[in-house]
Amino acid sequence: MVMQHERVSSPYLEGNFGPVREEVTAEDLKVIGELPEGLEGMFVRNGPNPQFDPIKGYHWFGGDGMLHGVRIKDGNVSYRNRYVQTERWRRENEAGRALWPSTLGGPPDPDNPAGPNPANQGNTALVWHDGRLLALWEGGDPHHIALPGLETCGRYNYGGSLVHAFTAHPKVDEKTGEMMFFGYNMLGMDMRTGQQVPFLQYSVASPQGEIVHTTPIELPVGVMMHDFAVTERYSIFMNLPLVFSMERAMKGENPLYFDRDRPSQFGLLPRRASGDRVRWFESPACYVFHVLNAFEEGDEVVLDGCRMNSVDLGALDSRTALNPETKPLIDRDSEQTLYRWRFNLATGDVKEGRLDDATGDFPRVNDFEVGYKTRFGYVARFDGSGMPQSDGVLKYDLEKETSRFHHHGSRRYGGEAVFVPREGATAEDDGWLMTYVYDHNSGDSEFVVINAQDVESEPVARVPLPQRVPYGFHGAWIPEERVTQSR
Q1: Cβ count near 230 (within 10 Å)
Q2: Distance CA 27, CA 480 (A)
Q3: Any bridge partners for residue 117, and if so which?
Q4: pLDDT band at 107; cut points 50, 70, 90
Q5: DSSP string covering 55-88, please?
Q6: In CATH, which superfamily holds the domain spanning 11-485?
Q7: Which of 84, 159, 205, 400 could form a disulfide with 179 if both were Cys (CB 3.0 to 4.6 A apart)?
């Protein structure tokens, strides 16, 4: 007998947050403007997109992963979207309906005839390393994605040498070819075996795609650690007070809560050192979903990221969702603004301060400069509606302490802007910014290319897409030579 469930209502299932269910392929798309000469490759973005109407609740972070890809080759533009075919996606696809809630909280349901929830939606971000594109979700293994078709090859665990979850935000040092990543376990327990595991583990993969270093890092409690940063010599971990509570989970509540009484801790660890060598620096309680970059300067390690005073993940959950008309998701306490920390390795002091008052997130730099001092950064500015909608892109000149703004247009909203360097570029910002833009006026979506050195101008190229692209999370640009040589 098929269980009947009430329809789940959530602002994250409506408008352009709502899912598209059809997978399409479209060739020879129209270009408005002119594509930059020599620009060839594939822009792919990940995001949540439930394949069936959710049951018992929906959290924006909990939808099935869907990849939206635009390929530019030989002057032609094509588009395709494909689900990340995780175990959960396959099981529900075979059943023809949702089998588990798409939420962050609640205890296991022993009465569910479908069994335990294989909770890895592969819906958050992407990374290219060692000839592979990986779709990421921080609670489990990556999924290997074939190019250019975006087919899911399966879970990828480095031949069994991956012994912990894989962050949604690994860092690739393009100068050395190394990839640094971590995995956190808020329970401190392997649910398959019941064995105790560290709250945090950290690994390094060689340019050849072999995990060459793994070490545990001691934490006092389980926390949600969404991102981290690297410099030329260090990896930087953010032990922030978004704490896991089993008691809340057993009550069916969101198990993560912000503990204002705990300070923030930032841990610096030499890249391939044992976890017991981490050095912690304290600052007032805050939360950071995403870092812009980090670098070394004299005795100091400098970290830039989008900081908020507190965070309430329940605001994105249909069971406890806030009404944005009465209490917005992005209120004064949860506004994300670009911020800088300086950790002095000689004295142990921490200096910190806001770099701008504008609200935004999804910060990016030139990927070839990650871990090294950069002059420019790019942030998706939020529009002040109380929802995570971006009305344009802020380009920061961190040397001059100025910013310039690209506006997507009236009632037009984009997301994370990925920087793509021009072939043969010598200047850090000589290149293009790419994102998807949704037009509330028409209900249509576009792929847009913006001149990074002239962000205030109109896009140099816009490509109307054959279907709507829902708001999502993180993207990547894969140059054509990598597309054709991908595994």
Answers
A1: 26
A2: 17
A3: none
A4: low
A5: SS-BBGGGSPEEEEEEEEETTEEEEEEEE---HH
A6: TolB, C-terminal domain (2.120.10.30)
A7: 205
